[in-house]
Amino acid sequence: MKMSHDTQTVYRTTPARTGKMMAIMLGICIVGGAIFFSMWDYWISQPAPVVAMMAGEADKAAPAAATGKTITQDLSFIESSDFRTLAFNSLPGEPNHNPTINMNVGDKVVFDVINDGKSFHAFGVTKADEGFAGIIPGSEIGAASNPLKPGEGGTSEFVAGEEGTYYYICTVPGHREQGMVGEIIVGSAQGGGSSGVAAAPTGVSHDFNLDFVESDDFRTLAFNALPGFDGHNPEIRVSSGDEVTITSTNTGKSFHAFGVVSNPEDFNNVIWDSAIAAASNPLKPGESGSTTFTAGAPGTYYYICTVPGHALQGMQGSFIVE
């Protein structure tokens, strides 16, 4: 009896061929890993606005008609010696601590930020009242994954798209909770700038003294006191229709003049007949002057020295009409 057997072909490979296959697979893993980690900043970054909208998150920076008004805000990251308290410009209880910014829909803020601390920091504007998410595109300076090192700085812009309270913060996780947060109060577009409607005279009067002061090297100028001292560039708040009297004395060694403006960079745009002297006929050292005017439409304005360049050297403060 003849028996038949099924035959099966068995394919074998050599150790050398197996080694090549393993080397190819290992190479693919290494290259893939390198590509993944080289794009780490992208993987951990905030989602694009369209992704956020698809996920149901409201657009925090909806377009608004530009008012043409620009606010310049200098901010510096600072830390307490034990690093438990973080802040902008000065520590709690000191002048200019986390300054509040008042603006209107369509206004623009230009932030000039520097890291004066010893740790890493980053900057952004958000409408979220806690955490570090929802940063508005265009307001960022650095990022948690690529922060500002000590001594580094940068600039960014924020245009208010809607009324409400926004926040400027350090976007490094945990730093907001330690104190690096300030408010941006945005009013209605109708309420801002000199184009709004002023209230009728209220019969309320205010008197303010704003004296011109200078540092010894003349590099820093201010009203009433130099930065870091009590009374430095005090914020003035009045109501629309109030009568305001400003008295200024030139306590410095240079020439100065006073005025309220809607844009601190435009020293020719003095409003409400608020001028004391002028750049062409300034107050000499020791001279004084006074002006009385009625506060106009609600909004954020600025009092400055109208001698060209002096506002940029520090002679400017907020004049808020409510």
UniProtKB/TrEMBL annotation:
Spans through the membrane: 21-43
Protein name in UniProt: Blue (Type1) copper domain-containing protein
SUPFAM superfamilies: Cupredoxins
A Pfam family per the record: Copper-bind
GO MF entries: copper ion binding; electron transfer activity
Keyword Membrane part of the UniProt annotation: yes
Ranges for domain Plastocyanin-like: 98-188
Keywords, alphabetical: Copper, Electron transport, Membrane, Metal-binding, Transmembrane, Transmembrane helix, Transport
InterPro entries given in the database record: BlueCu_1 (IPR000923), BlueCu_1_BS (IPR028871), Cu-binding_ET (IPR050845), Cu-oxidase-like_N (IPR011707), Cu_oxidase_CS (IPR033138), Cupredoxin (IPR008972)
Superkingdom to which the source organism belongs: Archaea
